[in-house]
Amino acid sequence: MNSWSSRHSAVPIEQGFTIWLTGLPRAGKTTLARLLARRLRQEGRSVELLDGDVLRRTLAKDLGFSRDDWLENIRRIAFVATIVTQAGGIAIVAAIAPYAEARAAARRTIRRYMEVYVRCPLAICMQRDPKGLYAKAQRGEVSRFTGLLDSYDEPLHPDVIVDTDRTDPAQCVEAILRGFTAIRESERLR
């Protein structure tokens, strides 16, 4: 063994993980993802925030909002999250991911995965809409808008549920972190 590898072989490699926040548009996914990323970085962890809105403008700018395009969008996000996870980082994904089958495929692909359902009633999401997308969808200016003109499959068995209409963001982040710690602890005990 050369001197470089002998010096570094004893350094434990942090196992990566993906925390996927799913929910209706304006449920609070991005807000929670940013707070969660900040908190994990303060703990010294390597974190990448994969925001669905940003990825739509970059990685998926060639896609529309048909079911097939949504499935492809989520497949691409899962691919990037897998790379982050395999490199030992924590990928925090804030993406609607409206279809249960796409989220299940992401879980199978990534493996070290935690699904967080950012739950919020549609009426509250509509009130929180600074871009006016819900109003545009109601006027017919936006087609296939998730939760209004297109379906959103509520997660049946998420690892964590946070209700952003009645829980403040800091408490939601604490609930996510408790779930994250519990999953990591259960993996360690296996």
Q: What is the gist of this entry?
A:
The protein is α/β, with parallel strands linked by helices and 190 residues long. Helix content is 47%, strand content 14%.
Outline, from the CA principal axes?
Answer: globular
- Provide a count of the helices: 8
CATH superfamily label:
P-loop containing nucleotide triphosphate hydrolases
Please provide the ordered H/E string of secondary-structure elements.
Answer: HEHEHHEHEHHEH
CATH topology: Rossmann fold
Number of domains: 1
**Helix content bin:** 40-55%
Mean pLDDT: 88
Percentage beta strand: 5-15%
Question: What is the subunit organization of this protein?
Answer: single chain
Biggest sheet record: 5 strands, parallel
For the largest sheet, list the strands in their spatial order: 2-3-1-4-5
3D structure, described in words:
The chain is α/β, with parallel strands linked by helices and 190 residues long. It has one domain: P-loop containing nucleotide triphosphate hydrolases (Rossmann fold), CATH 3.40.50. The chain has helices at 3-8, 29-42, 52-57, 67-86, 100-110, 122-127, 133-138, 169-189, and strands spanning 17-22, 47-51, 90-94, 113-119, 160-163. Strands 2-3-1-4-5 form a five-stranded parallel beta sheet, with helices on both faces. It is globular, with a radius of gyration of 18 Å. Residues 1-13 have low confidence and may be disordered.
Fill in the keyword field for this structure:
single chain, 190 residues, alpha/beta, Rossmann fold, 5-stranded parallel β-sheet, 8 helices, disordered N terminus
